[in-house]
Amino acid sequence: MGGVPRPARSPGCCPGLRVLGAAQAGDRAFGDFLARRFPGDDRTEAVHGEICALAQQVLGRAQAAGVVRSDVTGADLFLLLWASSRVAEATRHVAPSMWRRHIYLALDGFRASNRLDLREPAWDADQLYRAMAEPGKVFHDEEPLRRAGEAP
Fold first, then answer.
1. Which of 12, 38, 52, 66, by CA, is between 20 and 30 Å from 112?
2. CB contact at 8 A, 84 and 21
3. Model's pTM, two decimal places?
């Protein structure tokens, strides 16, 4: 046994994230693919776009069902996958399934019943794309991220 217990009522997007998490834990190239964008490659961008669209649909259904909090965004899902791929890579030889714990802890925060003030604004799809296309680059033309309605 020794596995991470599954929550009794998982957010509606949980099975898809577990599948993507397992795929990226088992295939480093797939993990890198999910964590990056490739502006110069139309085919790769199309596939990535399809994955993003499907993830957004699943998230929307889970939010409509009242299972996932309304302020979770598609960017939040991909940031979680991005982070979990790094956890999988760092722990692959000592704790190969640690990425699951990371995802379960994060998903617990996605539940509609968890209403902590996140204190940080969500990224939109363009901000996430830029970070994935050019990791570590400082974008001087962009204002600091602010919450909706927050004054500059």
1. 52
2. yes
3. 0.70
